[in-house]
Amino acid sequence: MNTLIKLFFVMIIFPNIMIAQKTKKNYEYHIDLLHLSNDEVRVSFSPPKNNLKQGKFIIPKLVPGFYQAMNFGQYVSDFTATDKNGKKILTERLDKNSWMVHDLKNVKKISYQVADGWDSLEKNNQEAKSPGTMFKKDSVFVINYNSLVGYFEEMKGNPYQIKVTKNKGFYASSALNYQQKNKNTDIVWAKDYRQLVDSPVLYCVPDTTWIKIGHTEVLVSFYNNKERHYSKIIAREIENILKNQQAYLGGTLPVNKYAFLIYYESSNENGYLGDGLEHSHSTLCLYRAGSMKFLPHALNRVASHEFFHIVTPLNIHSGEIQHYDFLNPVMSKHLWLYEGMTEYATIHMPIKQKMISLEDFEKSLEEKIQGMKEFDNKLSFTEMSKNSMERQDQYMNFYQKGALLGACLDIRLRELSHGKMGTQDLMQMLMKKYGEGKYFNDDHLFDEITKMTYPEIRTFFRDFVEGTQPIPLKEYLEKAGFNYDEATGKVTSFPNPDSKQIALRKAWINQ
Q1: Between the CA of residue 204 and those of 44, 116, 134, 227, 375, what are the distances in Å?
Q2: What is the pLDDT of residues 171-224, one digit of tens each?
């Protein structure tokens, strides 16, 4: 009883003692967006309390969703560590993305400068911008924390507290919950480095709209240096898609909050340039074009694909993704699932939900078939996935052949189950088994799916995903009453399908 009274006294009378104990485990960062110097941001932090003689500090080489080295450490300079008296402590730069900090237990503060990763979306620069960070002092900051914040290899799982000093008129749009300490200061917390990096933020004068889809709060945040009231238009376009996705996913979305962050840069050139990166609870889209007229339509497709990533890899992923190594990542062999099945859902959902015509769906299949022909389709998808960093020339085939593999898998499941099970059902089953925070063994997934479905599905994976056999598109489409002309690439529905074909087509695409 006395122990309980003492604990109550400590917590109520001296709550700051409890807070101080908790914060010792945090990385405590300060990012100054208000006082830029030479287009560089000053970043400083106190490391978690530790007894380490030295520690390896890391800024990511690359991030989930991209499969080529980005080397975000290249933008970091003036890396300095000091003790509580302001005395410098020895640091060594090991390579582009890592530093050795000596006498780490006595380090009070580490600070460094971070340069802008990109100034503009230029057509002649094909390097991806969406994983990077951009600073425009008086107008906008597009922030991916993998560019600004790092971690010690010896302290990977610690939580983060980020204090941001910013223009008093700026608002933080993000999937994370930013709290305003005062007009110039925001505070945000992340449970670990992965969550922080997985949550980009758009800082600018707000043009935001909230919509609610079921229990899910969706933020649409837009920036353009001329147009300040465009998020409502985009939100109206996105809302219809999200409602149909909710129905497609069984009536419930597996996230409570989601954010669409959209940066639009005006241009005098014809056409447009687009770049984007999905995250577990948000999507960052970057556009450059001469006209905004195309934007709602372009975002429809992007929003649909990126939002479907809430299924995979958010809820369904392997240990390689769960324990992602930002310096030397090990690739999963299941990009057919993460990107191929996501893209398949993107083209399947509109026809299943009666948003498009049968002819439009046939055109979607034809586009994927034509796109697939641009790549080497004799390569194993699992091997390509494991070696995706080395095979960038083939990576986009996961969106082409991968989507067609999804269609064939869906048809095969519908055939074996007499219409009762398809890929929609399979993904729901996988989400229940491997929900958020859980993961599957990379080598066991095909066997696990087979246990959930039919023995014939193991043969499907062995032949067409692990193996190099051509996907049986003509044979499988015929089962659902479609003709695929391999010479022309045309897909057309049979004028007089038989009863089995009609039943399978109905179960597959609701037509």
Answers
A1: 22, 16, 12, 13, 41
A2: 999 999 999 999 999 999 999 999 999 999 999 999 999 999 999 999 999 999
Whether residue 364 contacts residue 423, with contact meaning beta carbons closer than 8 Å, is answered with: no
Instruction: Reduce the secondary structure of 458-507 to three states and give it as a string.
Output: HHHHHHHHHCCCCCCHHHHHHHCCEEEECCCCEEEECCCCCHHHHHHHHH
CATH architecture of the domain covering 208-308: Orthogonal Bundle (1.10)
Contacts 24+ apart (CB under 8 A), 233-238: 233/296, 234/209, 234/260, 234/262, 234/295, 234/296, 234/299, 235/209, 235/211, 237/296, 237/297, 237/299, 237/300, 238/211, 238/299, 238/300, 238/303
Does residue 282 come out as left (phi exceeding 0), alpha (psi in the -120 to 50 range) or beta?
A: beta
The residue with greater pLDDT, 272 or 13, is: 272
Residue 464, both tokens = 């067409």
Radius of gyration of the chain (CA): 25
Q: Are 422 and 413 in contact (CB under 8 A)?
A: yes
Residues of the chain with CATH 2.60.40.3650: 28-198
What residues does 286 pair with on adjacent strands? 263, 275
pLDDT in tens, 18-77: 343 445 799 999 999 999 988 899 999 999 999 999 999 999 999 988 878 899 999 999
Contacts of 219 (CB under 8 A, 6+ apart): 173, 175, 208, 209, 210, 257, 258, 259, 260
| From-to residues of CATH 1.10.390.10 in the chain | 208-308, 319-509
- Residues contacting residue 50 through CB under 8 Å, at least 6 positions apart: 104, 105, 154, 155
122 phi, psi to nearest 5 deg: -110, 140
For residue 342, give the 3-state DSSP assignment. Answer: helix
CB atoms inside a 10 Å sphere around CB 444: 11
Q: How many Cβ atoms are within 10 Å of 53's Cβ, its own excluded?
A: 10
For the stretch 344-398, pLDDT in tens is 999 999 999 999 999 999 999 999 999 999 999 999 999 999 998 888 889 999 9
What is the residue whose two structure tokens read 């080397």? 71
CA 180/CA 188 separation, integer angstroms: 9
- Topology given in CATH for the domain delimited by 28-198: Immunoglobulin-like (2.60.40)
Q: For the chain, percent helix, then strand, then coil, each to nearest 5?
A: 35, 25, 40
CATH architecture of 319-509: Orthogonal Bundle (1.10)
